[in-house]
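Sample pair:
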Amino acid sequence: MLVTAHTGREAAVDSARMVIGRLVEEDLTVRVLGAEAEAVGCPGVDVVPTGLSAIQDVEMMIVLGGDGSLLRAAELARPAGVPLLGVNLGHVGFLAEAEVEDLAAAVDCVVQGRYDVEERMTIEVTARLNGQVLADTWALNEATVEKRERMLEVVAEIDGRPLSRWGCDGVICATPTGSTAYAFSAGGPVVWPEVEALLLVPISAHALFARPLVVSPRSALALEIQPQTAGAVLWCDGRRRFDLPAGARVEVRRGEVPVRLARLHGVEDTGAPFTDRLVAKFDLPVQGWRGRARP
């Protein structure tokens, strides 16, 4: 097991120590990243450098923090196909499987092997200028092209055909997983994680036709930054930034490598239907619901 935590949060460090102690008690090999080892300070762990070698032959990566921590961990786990178990210590925490109050029960599920693995769709993102590759990366939630100084002038393309030109603050290309992240804040639809689709969401566009779009997962999306624009910025999952000059083109396709998330069995509020997660995370009013009448 590889345990990683947001070491800037005392609650995350305390939770990491509890998780590590429980795993060590069960004679499981536990790894901790070298950058976090001093803060966590647990005996009986293997301290490993951050990199692909840290994740080799690991059954699971347990992440204590918010969605940002899990997105950071996904960069390490995705190439090796290692499942992630997120424990939410942040605010909304849509990617996390367990809340901190369920931590002990969640660790028991891990020890006993009571979990399934769910694959989440990713996107591959390439930025080019006159055929030269400026960026070649990926995202679990979204890739966004945003204005740098003045309004962004961009032409959107789907499957090799122009769709519309927008003067806007930016455009979001998101996965279903990312539909509850930045795309949601920009007015995009909520898409259930098991739905296979790509989302295209303009941000504050000055145009009559600037609605969020849901397209086939086999579609290819592209955004062309117009020459009169003072450049733009490409963000992937809010973590990886690339400056884009005027005239650049950003292409987005479904990724070939998914991110794998662990889903636990038998822990309250985990493994719950996505509908229940929406209700809990956004505190949605459901008073008056009676459900289907039983015979």
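Helices lie at 10-25, 34-40, 52-55, 67-77, 103-112, 182-185, 274-282.
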